[in-house]
């Protein structure tokens, strides 16, 4: 009886091992058969990182490419889209995303991160502020784009359909353009939907900058969305725009701000391990206004980024190309200078400064 019991026990153990092996093989087969995450033809399987280009086809003008990286985590989670280089002269976010790419371990990542390294490659290579050297358009006014339009419109269309439409959260990473002395801050959109706005606020606070501009501009107005973050918002995707750097500088201090902000958002979304680092103190800014030049000429700033000014304070003097004064440009209200133009050239209707009111004052 004892021998028979032993044999029966052996047979039972063999069956259990066989079942266990079958389950392991089935799980492996299921995982191996999982669909890769694809962005514009760049495909990453679970637990992998793949870099490549989204091709922007030739149309009414030259084509281009958009360098991206897809980091597809080994476990399920949200999709975070990170865009840099919408304005090609804004270098710190571009540098930050290259560092982030090398530091994220896809086998430990929960969810997927889409890195758009340089959204506007023609502007980056051409070292142009605001506008594309190909079609003269500002990419951050072209969304959601047009597949039959000029190059900037085609880029916007591909970013919308390939990146934004697949995202659960989006950060549009900017810095002071080549002509802007800027104090770092975040644009935090407010839509009026309390639950949705709480998700947006979570991103804005987690990014870690100590100045946040409350942006109450329209998100659901008729017509084109124009801006990258607005394009996400109208699709129900929480989004913010960040500014970390100034005057075209690629100083490591500025890229480090962008990099640390992204890492804390990843912790906030529980896409990586570790606790979110609290934001110790925030100056909330409201009712921002971009002050524009009334004429083309040369701007001589009389204030600096981060300064507080009173209503009517001198922001700068606009002179003609002979150095003769055209007009003095003054603050429309009391508040903080988010940025001021730091290089002489200015065209009519271009910004010379941005001022925000300090909430509670």
Structure commentary:
The protein is of the alpha+beta class. It is built from seven helices and 19 strands. It has two domains: about 35-270, Aminopeptidase (3-Layer(aba) Sandwich); about 285-360, RNA polymerase II/Efflux pump adaptor protein, barrel-sandwich hybrid domain (OB fold (Dihydrolipoamide Acetyltransferase, E2P), Beta Barrel), CATH 2.40.50. About 25% of the residues lie in helices and about 30% in strands. The strands form three sheets. Strands 3, 4, 5, 6, 7, 8, 9, 10, 11, 12, 14, 17 and 19 form a 13-stranded mixed sheet that branches. The protein has a four-stranded antiparallel sheet with strand order 16-15-13-18, with no helix packed on it. It has a two-stranded antiparallel sheet with strand order 1-2.
Question: Mind sketching the topology for me?
Answer:
Layout: H1 2-32, E1 37-39, E2 42-44, E3 48-56, E4 64-72, E5 75-84, H2 91-103, E6 110-116, H3 121-126, H4 151-163, E7 169-174, E8 180-182, E9 185-189, H5 194-206, E10 211-215, H6 228-233, E11 239-243, H7 252-268, E12 283-292, E13 297-301, E14 308-309, E15 314-319, E16 325-330, E17 335-341, E18 345-346, E19 351-358
Parallel strand pairs: 5-6, 5-7, 7-11, 9-10, 10-12
Antiparallel strand pairs: 1-2, 3-4, 4-6, 8-17, 9-11, 12-19, 13-15, 13-18, 14-17, 15-16, 17-19
Helix pairs in contact: 2-7
Q: How would you describe the oligomerization state of the chains in this entry?
A: single chain
Overall geometry comes to globular
The CATH superfamily title of the largest domain: Zn peptidases
Rg from alpha-carbon coordinates: 25 Å
- Provide the structure class: alpha+beta
Gap from first CA to last CA: 91 Å
Number of domains: 2
């Amino acid at each position: 009886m004892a021998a028979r019991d032993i044999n029966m026990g052996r047979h039972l153990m063999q069956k259990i091992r066989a079942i266990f092996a079958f389950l392991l093989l089935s799980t492996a087969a299921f995982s191996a058969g999982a669909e890769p995450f694809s962005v514009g033809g760049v495909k990453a399987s679970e637990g992998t990182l793949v870099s490549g280009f989204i091709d922007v086809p030739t149309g009414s003008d030259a084509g281009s490419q958009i360098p991206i990286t897809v980091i597809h985590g080994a476990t399920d989670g949200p999709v975070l889209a990170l865009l840099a280089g919408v304005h090609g002269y804004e270098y710190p976010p571009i540098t930050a995303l290259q560092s982030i790419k090398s530091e994220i371990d896809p086998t430990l990542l929960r969810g997927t991160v889409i890195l758009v390294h340089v959204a506007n490659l023609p502007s980056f290579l051409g070292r142009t502020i605001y506008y594309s050297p190909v079609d003269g358009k500002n990419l951050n006014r072209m969304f959601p784009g047009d597949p039959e339009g000029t190059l900037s419109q085609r880029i916007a269309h591909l970013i919308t359909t390939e990146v934004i439409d697949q995202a659960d959260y989006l950060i549009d990473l900017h810095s002071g353009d080549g002509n802007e002395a800027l104090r770092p801050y975040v644009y935090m959109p407010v839509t009026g939907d309390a639950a949705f706005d709480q998700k947006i606020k979570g991103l804005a606070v987690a990014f870690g900058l100590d100045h946040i501009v409350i942006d109450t501009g329209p998100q659901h107005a008729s017509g084109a969305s124009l801006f990258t973050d607005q394009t996400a918002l109208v699709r129900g995707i929480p989004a913010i725009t960040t500014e970390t750097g100034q005057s075209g500088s690629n100083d490591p201090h500025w890229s480090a701000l962008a990099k640390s902000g992204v890492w804390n958002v990843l912790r906030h979304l529980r896409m990586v391990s570790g606790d979110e680092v609290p934001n110790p103190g925030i100056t909330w800014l409201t009712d921002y206004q971009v002050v524009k030049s009334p004429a083309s000429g040369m701007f001589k700033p009389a204030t600096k980024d981060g300064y507080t000014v009173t209503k009517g304070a001198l922001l700068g003097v606009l002179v003609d190309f002979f150095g003769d004064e055209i007009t003095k440009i003054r603050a429309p209200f009391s508040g903080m200078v988010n940025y001021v133009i730091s290089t002489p050239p200015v065209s009519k209707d271009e910004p010379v400064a941005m001022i925000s009111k300090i909430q509670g004052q």
